[in-house]
Sequence to fold (272 residues):
Amino acid sequence: MKSKSKFVIGDIQGCYKEFKNLLKLIDPNKENKFFCVGDLINRGPESEKVIEYILENKIKSVLGNHDLHLMAILMGIKEHNDKKDTMHKILSKNKSIEIIEHFLTFPFAKVLSHQNKKSLVVHAGILPTWSLNDVLAANDELISSLKSDPGKFLSTMYGNRRKAISKSTNKKNRRRYLVNVFTRMRFITSRNKLDLQTKVKKTSKEQYQPWFSYKHKSLKELDNIVFGHWAALNGVTNHNKIKGVDLGCVWGGALAAINVNDKSIITVDSVK
Ligand SMILES: [Mn+2]
Fold:
């Protein structure tokens, strides 16, 4: 690699070995920059090792639904679901404060600038009707309430709020909706109503389309949008400016990184 590159890494979800293998490929001399798409932990085998590496090396990411879930567990707001969650070893490490403090530096949306171009990184997606300013305003609104009172934010965050809501009406429901857009969204209607159930590639529900299939206002100002969260897509969006980087490493697929400078993708296979 000639000059410094910037990469966005897909959903790691506790796949520490694959994460380290990927870093060897994208950053052999520790001079390239990389940023994560969220869901650093959970479901996978070595979340505690991923967390250790993230804290030690001050790795940056946007917030994913699993990252928020870990914060809620660490703050005693949610219980570790032993049937689904795989974060016991994180909880036993007594690193709650460090983890929460580090995760509180993560945004929901991040603009990466490169060669006069801009890439937007989000965990799940953004609304088609949003300009870049609207994206950043929604991010600021969430981040300021998360930082000012994490306990209150995390305890009122859970809920399947699916319809948009104005600022003045109900703050909790508005936060829930915005968190769902940034961290859980897959299919939406043309009126920005979310389907929070369907996780596969296609939906039979009329009126619902993948969020990236609509015309996106923010693409006037952005070179591309990079997201994770939706493993079933296997990265396929059929959109030249909206790129999925969750290749389902935790489900036996691959861990991917996209080079935002030239859009090339590097992958490592899941370690069995
Ligand atoms: Mn996710």
Summary: The longest strand covers residues 109-114. The chain has one domain: 6-269.
